[in-house]
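Hi again,

Forgot to attach this to my earlier email, sorry! This is the prediction with adenosine-5'-diphosphate bound. I've pasted everything inline since the attachment limit keeps bouncing my files.
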Amino acid sequence: RGPLPRPPQTRVMVVANQKGGVGKTTTTVNMAAALAQGGLRVLVVDLDPQGNASTALSIDHHRGTLSTYDAIVDGTDLAEIVQPSPEIEHLFVVPATIDLAGAEIELVSMVARESRLRKALHAHPQILADTEDRFDYVLIDCPPSLGLLTLNALVAGDEMLIPIQAEYYALEGLGQLLETVEMVKAHLNPGLDVSTIVLTMYDARTRLSAGVAEEVRGHFGDQVLRTAIPRSVRISEAPSYGQTVMTYDPSSPGALSYLEAAREMAFRVEPEAAAAASTIANQ
Ligand code: ADP
Ligand code: MG
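Structure tokens for the complex follow:
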């Protein structure tokens, strides 16, 4: 398969969908693992107070651990907070602790409350930098709501990675998410791009899954990755071993599909970004 291409600059991807249980966390950790296994440097930012991404990646996130909360609320340097994955090389994590549950309310009265994560990311010397050791990908795992935490992710990100569960009601609530994105683009982050949609928990045996996939592809066209993630017990078992499916069962269909999806994502760099980068490189 070979290594994956480094993007022209750090791609900050926001994994969001305000519905719970659609595969945000699963997609974040497995895409991150697959990108890292492809030789890229990846940072996962856990922005959900539940800390499921931290758990799945075996990252310490007991109360009191430096976490996303400290970065957003107290302005602590991300460099002090980042932990390396114990399992996967090139993969790093900013954990979430339960303190983050309070941040949603604490943020309300804070200065620049929507852009605190952006500020933290931009201050990190390996993010959006031009150094050899810069992160190639930052994946932000959002909580299942459209509150201030998710808003911080939308303001901090370049692109969105939206998991859609191949289930009845799949598109319900998506309108609200896309309206929020439009609002953010108009006022806070004009460059935000809904670049990538991935179908999750796809069941090839059911007409329902096929029907949902067709509807999503009809609606979003090329934004939808060709690879759909199948429903797989191995994928859902992996977190209870503190692993991604990429290490838990690398040859399972679930692992192979995330590998393929990550590959597709890595080879689909925004044309403008690629063009801009080559223009700069040629100067
Ligand atoms: P979210 O972060 O959007 O709330 P999760 O990633 O936590 O969603 O997934 C919700 C549940 O579905 C979890 O128990 C997870 O293990 C399970 N799950 C996610 N993707 C798959 C899949 N492809 N096959 C089987 N179970 C899955
Ligand atoms: Mg989650």
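The longest helix spans residues 253-267. Residues 20-26, 52, 144, 200-201, 229, 231-232, 235-236, 254 surround adenosine-5'-diphosphate (ligand 1) (CB under 6 Å).

That should be everything now.

G.
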